[in-house]
Amino acid sequence: MANKTRIPLHHINSHIKLQQSMMTKRKPQSYDYFLVLDFEATCCEEGKMRPQEVIEFPVLKVNAKTYEIDSSFHQFVKPKHHPILSRFCMDLTSITQEEVDGGKPFPEVFKDFDKWIKEDVGINNKFLFVTCGDWDLKTMLPSQCASENLQVPAYCKKWLNIKKSYAIVKGEYIKGMMPMIKGLGLTHTGRLHRGFDDCKNIANILKALADHGCTFLPTMTIE
Ligand code: AMP
Ligand code: MG
Ligand code: MG
């Protein structure tokens, strides 16, 4: 007589997931989480905004074993110096005047972010910020903090520029996120230059590079 014992579906699913991860070249990482961050900021077509201010603050907490997004931080920020967005900025980022008007000023958002790091990520867990380029944590965050008389927390002073990981895997350093998506055979999702969508695409790049056997380590540290 046939054995009619049923195996619960979640057992089968977790077994498939385990098999899939064993089929890739994934390596163990020195981190518990990767924090994928991508700021959007005030901008105009001609020249630079002075001061340039963060208008969207999204961070994804990516599990360093499964590459799933475990949780996220996402807030719009109300700019202080140029509260009215330029038409160019709204067209580029798809961020609306209503979204920034409904946001909090940067110091409050940054306080919420620090709370999220401490409560949701855990300061004692090992995490590494991942960005596309160095602008977010080398330029934008320190200048915004300086203009608001805020300290840059120590945990924001080290990150991985994913373009460098891509260069190691593919042998060429490329400028934008879109060529990395194309080079890895991925599909772009959402709206380009919308921070939360950019983060999701960067997280997809991270996962694809992990499947190529990439080990992720910091590429820049500031004072
Ligand atoms: P990104 O993460 O590439 O979407 O860009 C981050 C920020 O850089 C944007 O929110 C803009 O402030 C600025 N930026 C990006 N691309 C351009 C561009 N073509 N012209 C002017 N500013 C830009
Ligand atoms: Mg960016
Ligand atoms: Mg972006």
From TrEMBL:
One of its GO terms (molecular function) is 3'-5'-RNA exonuclease activity. InterPro entries: 3-5_Exoribonuclease, ERI-1_3'hExo-like, Ribonucl_H. The keyword Nuclease applies. Pfam families: RNase_T. Keywords: Exonuclease, Hydrolase, Nuclease. Residues 33-215 form the Exonuclease domain. This is ERI1 exoribonuclease 3-like. It comes from Homarus americanus (American lobster).
